[in-house]
Design brief:
This protein is an alpha/beta fold. It has two domains: 60 residues, Orthogonal Bundle (DNA polymerase, domain 1), CATH 1.10.150; 284 residues, Aldolase class I (TIM Barrel, Alpha-Beta Barrel). It contains twelve helices and 14 strands. Strand 5 and strand 6 form a beta hairpin. Helix 5 packs parallel to helix 6 and helix 10 packs parallel to helix 11. The structure holds S-adenosyl-L-homocysteine (SAH). S-adenosyl-L-homocysteine binds next to strand 10 and strand 12.
């Protein structure tokens, strides 16, 4: 006997559409499609992202019939938090579960009246940068919109942010696990929600996307969602960068710098941040600082020097403070604003490049529990 739609519904097998995965335009289309006013999209976004409400029955400005319809056909399902760690410096790290096999990490870094949320875009990462812990776990999959914006949603709830007046998250950086430009559509839809006045209302200066240099993605971003851009540069010549950041073989330095110039021009001479991890005896000499200044000469640029954060199984060593200072002073002497990024949350492995999300060990423990170990 053929099973009917109603049967499948009864068995709870109908795949429900998770409205968390829809940005504002897609949500408007959804409501158009079910014969509802597209304005419902704004109402839902406000409930979910401003008030943190995901239970349809509390959405009192929607008719009862619509609430029923939504309850039967859709869901609002953010990811969940498996674990929370709080550093002695106040940094918080959440292990965010996205499915039974995978977790990503999200980090909140408070600093005075600023609060920066570092968001992941992929489970693992395919880029294999040699100094990054995330690379060691390989690539599992792209995160959905619901899983990316869901990290902001979860952090806002955990921090007690329920309106603009209780704002705790003042900045978001797409600098967690993964390469956001390789998950372009979902990263952009999520960043649009971060900037949507009906959701988190952050200005585009306060939303930063960090990339290892995926040139086609940077070009698209300039046209479609020109947020603040950070480039993980880490070397001044292709020979070294090919080794440290292997995607450089595809998108070499000269082309990357040219693309950055165009991005800056497209964003009214916006400043581009260049990140440079300080690796002892690898990329940290004063002549390298001089070459970096030359390279960035024609771009409105700011440089963030990131002292290398170590992790198990890695052979790099952090540059000494005096080397980092000398490097910074050489860049500053060329008129480039340069700061040494403070290492935050390293006691809980929440610093740059230390995020792993525990994916492999979870997989391992799941496999062993299946074997009854
Ligand atoms: N894939 C993106 C975003 C994630 S990495 C990108 O490459 O930009 C976020 C930043 O941390 C990048 O600048 C990255 O190069 C840096 N980073 C990675 N591993 C690090 C480590 N072990 N110590 C310090 N910084 C690191």
């Amino acid at each position: 006997m053929k099973s009917t739609q109603a049967d499948t519904d009864k068995m709870g097998e109908t795949p429900q559409i998770n409205l968390m995965n829809l940005g504002s335009p897609a949500l408007t289309d959804y409501f158009d499609g079910i014969g509802e006013n597209g304005f419902r999209s704004t109402q839902i976004i406000k409930w979910v992202h401003q008030h943190g409400v995901i239970d349809y029955s509390s959405m009192t400005n929607l008719s009862k019939t619509l609430r029923e319809k939504l309850k039967n056909n859709t869901e609002l399902r953010p990811p969940t938090i498996d674990d929370e760690q709080i550093s002695e410096d106040g940094t918080r790290k959440w292990l965010v579960r996205t499915d039974p096999f995978n977790c990503v990490e999200t980090v909140f870094i408070p600093e005075g009246d600023r609060g920066t949320l570092c968001v992941s875009s992929q489970v693992g990462c395919p880029l294999n940068c040699q100094f990054c812990a995330t690379a060691t776990q390989g690539f599992s999959r792209n995160l959905s919109v619901g899983e990316i914006i869901g990290q902001v949603w979860l952090a806002a709830r955990k921090l007690g942010q329920s309106s603009a007046s209780t704002r705790k998250i003042t900045n978001v950086v797409m600098m967690g696990m993964g390469e956001p430009l390789l998950n372009f559509d979902n990263a952009v839809a999520s960043m649009r929600l971060m900037m949507d006045d009906n959701a988190y209302g952050l200005s585009k200066r306060r939303v930063t996307l960090s990339t290892a240099g995926v040139i086609p993605g940077i070009k698209r971003l300039a046209n479609e969602c020109p947020v603040s851009l950070a480039i993980s540069l880490h070397a001044t010549n292709d020979e070294l960068r090919n080794k440290l950041v292997p995607i450089n073989r595809k998108y070499p330095i000269a082309e990357l710098i040219q693309t950055c110039k165009e991005y800056s021009r497209a964003t009214n001479d916006g400043t581009i941040t260049f990140e440079y991890v300080m690796l002892k005896d690898v990329n940290d000499s004063v002549p390298e600082a001089r070459r970096l200044a030359q390279l960035l000469g024609e771009i409105p640029a700011k440089v963030n020097l990131i002292p290398f954060n170590t992790f198990k199984g890695n052979h790099f060593v952090r540059s000494s403070e005096s080397h980092i200072d000398a490097f910074r002073e050489r860049l500053s002497a060329s008129g480039i604003i340069t700061i040494t990024r403070k290492t935050r949350g390293s006691d809980i492995d929440a610093a740059c490049g230390q995020l792993v999300g525990d994916v492999t060990s979870k997989k391992r423990s799941l496999a062993s529990s299946k074997r009854g170990e």
